[in-house]
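Below is how a single chain appears once it has passed through the pipeline. First comes the sequence as given, then the structure the pipeline wrote out for it. We keep one example in the README because the format questions we get most often are answered faster by looking than by reading.
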Amino acid sequence: MSRPTLRPNRPFFSSGPCAKRPGWSPAALSDAWLGRSHRAAGGKAKLAEVIERSRAILGIPADYRIGIVPASDTGAVEMALWSMLGARGVDMLAWESFGEGWASDVVKQLKLKDVRSFTAPYGRLPDLGQVDPARDVVFTWNGTTSGVRVPDGGWLGAGREGLAICDATSAVFAMDLPWDRLDVVTWSWQKVLGGEGGHGMIVLSPRAVARLEGYVPAWPLPKIFRMTKGGKLIESIFKGETINTPSMLCVEDAIDSLKWAEEIGGLPALIERSETNLSVVEDWVSRTSWADFLATDPATRSCTSICLTLADTGRLKGEDATAAPKKIAALLEKEGVAFDIAGYRDAPPGLRIWGGATVEAADTAALLPWIDWAWREICLPAVTA
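Resulting structure:
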């Protein structure tokens, strides 16, 4: 196969930090609140703007609190785990590395005794019907390292007694979340918005606030995890007064991304852009004998972290199954047509193409012939698609 002539205009397919929005340049940060205190009126206004624009785009209920917190999505999830768990039994769901990490923290760090873990291998979901509505549940909406998402929120049920704590970092702004079924939702700007890292977002339902105000964990809480004082929620956290000093350059970048989202049509347009990227890859996979989705059920395929497996590895030129995807990724990076598409280090060998809303479907379509070309470059001449 000859080298393709059409190249992606933007070869950025990393699953985090992800591609900036189309048309982005450093000029977008020209109005950043720099050299001033983030606690001054102008700084707080910028932070509050991120909160309110996020609420409007995502359709988050008015009585849910939204805060900007330290340490990206990881910090936001840990804040919820350390502040709220232990009041009742908890069900932990894991089908990839991040869910496994949260389960490990709950068992090995918090050392909770009443923990049930429901796991599945990469590419599959555990049986969601095993989750007990009387217990808290912790799960990722979209497995960033497996390309497997929950198909909907029906399995959570209405009127559950336990809290639903959801790491949604690679789902928010690309998938429709049932806010009425979720009590804690976390994400970071560096995923679907294409923003910068280091800052997390946390959303609390009224039931989550009640848990915070009515339950005191048996362990000490670091300052960056504390959301209450004197048994009451620190409301200022959810009005733009952050726990620690944020980067106002990152805040300005988040505002720019949110404005872009509004301009193109809000959440429906963002979801459509991501789903279109998935459709482009699905069409290619249907015509390709040696590539398939890691997600075994089409209903659970992620439209953001699109994970692929490769077949026929026995006919590769001196390569084994684990080396083939890395070699393809390296070859495409050398050609300047795709950056950072090797699968996650703990996942089965494969490729991972980010399909979030900031990626143009035309770029995804232009990438795929290059993957065909790279496959043939590392395979024996007899291999055909």
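The chain has a mean pLDDT of 95.

See the next section for the split statistics.
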